[in-house]
Amino acid sequence: MRAELGPHLLLVVALLGAGPGAQAMKGVKCGGVLSAPSGNFSSPNFPRLYPYDTECRWLIVVAEGSSVLLTFHAFELEYHDTCSFDFLEIYNGASGDKGNLLGRFCGHAPPPPFTSSWHVMSVVFHSDKHVASHGFSAGYQKDVCGGVLTGLSGVLTSPEYPNNYPNNVECRWVIRATGPATVKLVFVDFQVEASEQCTYDYVAVLGGPGPAHGQHYCGATRPPTLVSLGRELQVVFKSDFNIGGRGFKAHYFSGECQEVYMAVRGNFSSPQYPSSYPNNIRCHWTIRLPPGYRVKVFFLDLDLEEPNSLTRTCDFDHLAAFDGASEEAPLLGNWCGRHSPPPITSSHSQLLLVLHTDRSTTGRGFSVAYIGGEWEPPPSHQLVPLPWVSSVPSPLTSSCHFPG
């Protein structure tokens, strides 16, 4: 086991012990921390009938910077239409946070393969006092290539990123939003062997609009931001027998973790608000108004993890606003804690809010309202200071009328 895993094991053991015990029936031992790079586990007594009234919790922890692929070899639990009796739950992280829940399963159909968006995954098995079946057998491994991603947000990277990717690799990821939502994919780094029509090494994205449907990307130019037409995006990475590169890194956002607002006024909030937001997410909300408008955002509530006690900076959970449609736009502000900031105003027709949370300590989140105003250039082309945009870090060269 790698040496740097030690501190993380202390954390996850604490998380494991925070929930109900892994031994819910006298004489039945199950669950625990799985920290090897790969392994297998199963329900008690598998392949014989599992015991009644039992709950087992497994916490899978691999080296930081890696991901976990979970696959099922066999699956047979008591069936119920809402899986309320015997069930298996899979979490993208610790099982104590329902915001990390990837799915609950029962019956005879095995769950699909799941890939975590970080180096921790949890599995919970529960049986009631009636009807037993043969249970399940599952395996996991770290640093996998491809899989089904169903979290609100996460990261995709080529194998061994940021080191050069290996030859003769083919990876397939399916990013699946929950419910009638879309998926947004943003590339933050990209270096793949260049070739005409990208016939050697490439990244392909399926399920997007227009040319993004099946478009191949290679070279050193980052692909554009892509949004799915439906609730799925498929990402394929392929390398040939020679010449490689650093590969790629991309963030994905889905469901209530990525929205685009085009109405002149509206409001929105963090996932699960006013309940606690999930750990380990990165969410994008874009306000996109017609040309000639600017956006004013009012903070109705803010309850995030407090700033770093040593530096007093927002190093943990934080909400940031950008004066444009991407994180490369000028920063309007970065906030954490429980003090609602004053209103902010964009200099153009688009504004982006980004919520980033870490692996521990959550709060209520945030709630905001926004309104669009028509842009009016001053007749003298002089700098015009406006009291309602005093929080914008640079003076504006226009005035703006917001409807009452």
TrEMBL record:
It comes from the Eukaryota. Keywords: Disulfide bond, Repeat, Signal. It comes from Chinchilla lanigera (Long-tailed chinchilla). This is CUB domain containing protein 2. The gene is CDCP2. Pfam families: CUB. InterPro entries: CUB_dom, Sperma_CUB_dom_sf. PANTHER family: CUB DOMAIN-CONTAINING PROTEIN 2, OVOCHYMASE-RELATED. Residues 1-24 form the signal peptide. Residues 30-143, 145-255, 257-373 form the CUB domain. The keyword Signal applies. SUPFAM superfamilies: Spermadhesin, CUB domain. SMART domains: CUB (SM00042).
